Fold this sequence. Notes:
By secondary structure, this protein is of the alpha/beta class. It has helices spanning 20-28, 42-55, 66-77, 92-100, 114-120, 143-152, 165-168, 202-210, 212-216, 222-254, 273-279, 296-305, 325-328, 331-337, 353-364, and strands spanning 59-63, 83-87, 107-111, 125-131, 156-160, 178-182, 196-200, 259-263, 286-291, 310-311, 321-323, 343-347. The protein has 15 helices and twelve strands. Helix 2 (42-55) runs parallel beside helix 10 (222-254) and helix 10 packs across helix 15 (353-364). It comes from Nonomuraea rosea.
Amino acid sequence: MLGAVNPPVFENSVFTFESAQELGEAIRNEDERYVYWRGTNPTVDLAQRKLAALERGERAKCFGSGMGAIAATISSLVSAGDHVLVLGAVYGPTTQFLRYLEKFGVTHTHVDDLAGCDSAIKASTRLLYFESPSYMAYAVVDIAGVTAWARERGLVTVMDNTWSTPLFQKPLTMGVDLVVHSLSKYIGGHSDLVGGVVTGPARLVRPLALTEYQLYGAAMSPHDAAKVIKGLRTLPVRMAAHQERGLAVAEFLEGHPAVRAVNHPGLPSHPGHAIAVRQMTGFSSLFSIELDTESREEVGLFLDKLRHFRIGVSWGGFESLVNAPALSTEESVRATMGIPVGLARLSVGLEPADSLIKDLGLALEGVGRLA
């Protein structure tokens, strides 16, 4: 418009029509027509179309948060009496939401692998939900294998692809039915927005856009949509830098005597590395380490000694962050996910790798066997 490099931000909350008939038609198709901000908005719609194209999906719907997208997506696929299979470790609030659904008669079971799925599946199972790489442990799921298993049994699959971004991994091309993301992380990239998205075929996205999206009210603002659009423009450059720095830090930690394990799929030593290389084109910079300690106090001291890594719960921004589930995650959720006390999650930002490595080296002095 008018030669503007950046698309305009449509701030208006309501759109008007020339006739009552036109309004009625628009309301019946509010997932595509501009009626009211809670439905959609031209700026948000542009972000949705870009995200759908990048993910190789027919449609995308942006939400006011990642959990807004996850909650609406799961709700759109289940009813009272249905059962959900959860494969591997998933985002803690996702587990909390599934527990919340129990009061509406929706149950779920956590399993570790396809053998567990075979044992836990029921006649009432409707949905298989998973992440790859998985939450905190960063285990790699054979996406094509899992979706084939689910398809044979008539299950819908939903996958959280936030870790890889649609730049490095495209689950829809491997058989996943719906893909969800937190846009607050790498896609936004600057720790200045909260948002989520679901992408997939129109036959699944349109119903939830018309129902759960509208009723839950988790609408994305046009200002946040504009930030998503800007984040997408620099995503390839930022992800290349995140990958380079993340692997450099992970390689340093892999050889450190105070670290029992490094959970980074990009390392050849990772159990899922071969699968990851097959289904991904790159690696992000979020991974975890297991410190050589069983002491929460010692884990807290490690976090407190860091200077370049700031203590925080999010990730995927320009700044490096650290978090420890034993200090911040509900105990029952941590137990369900099998997360050890000594696990610390690192989000490697865009600072020089040598500065981050030096910071970690100093903070690790005195941990576990070095004490």
